[in-house]
């Protein structure tokens, strides 16, 4: 193998290693920087809202294909629409004074508080 071939091979190996290692280092740095409480709770609410939209889309598809009768479709769609309204209201009110869960809460605690909030909104 020539010197030029060896250099090109080493450069390619370095690029591949960098491509693998850099995202891992970035994830580690993000983990060291704590998210603010409001930002974490906002993120959980947005995830929950995306799930609501996905469920409504699935209901619409099931009804359009005849898998779901009209009565059940309307009841389920209304339930998910109400949940969506509750989450949007919580997103609007979310700030440092109106936290959903205590500031030291983990994601599962925040999710439980979101469920309680939605149930109390009805």
Could you explain how this protein is built, in words?
- The protein is an all-alpha fold and 122 residues long.
- The protein has two domains: 1-33; 36-121.
- It contains four helices and no strands.
- It has helices at residues 3-32, 37-64, 70-93, 107-121.
- The longest helix is centred in the N-terminal third of the chain and has 30 residues, at 3-32.
- The protein starts with a helix and ends with a helix.
- The relative contact order is 0.11.
- The model has no long low-confidence stretch (mean pLDDT 83).
Brief write-up:
The protein is mostly helical. The protein has helices at residues 3-32, 37-64, 70-93, 107-121. The protein is built from 4 helices and no strands.
Record keyword descriptors for this entry.
122 residues; mainly alpha; 0% strand
Set out the fold topology.
Elements: H1 3-32, H2 37-64, H3 70-93, H4 107-121
Helix pairs in contact: 2-3, 2-4, 3-4
Multimeric organization: single chain
Label the structural class.
Answer: mainly alpha
Radius of gyration: 23 Å
Helix fraction bin: over 70%
What gross morphology would you assign? elongated
Largest sheet: none
Low-confidence stretches: none
> How many angstroms separate the termini?
74 Å
Compute the number of structural domains. Answer: 2
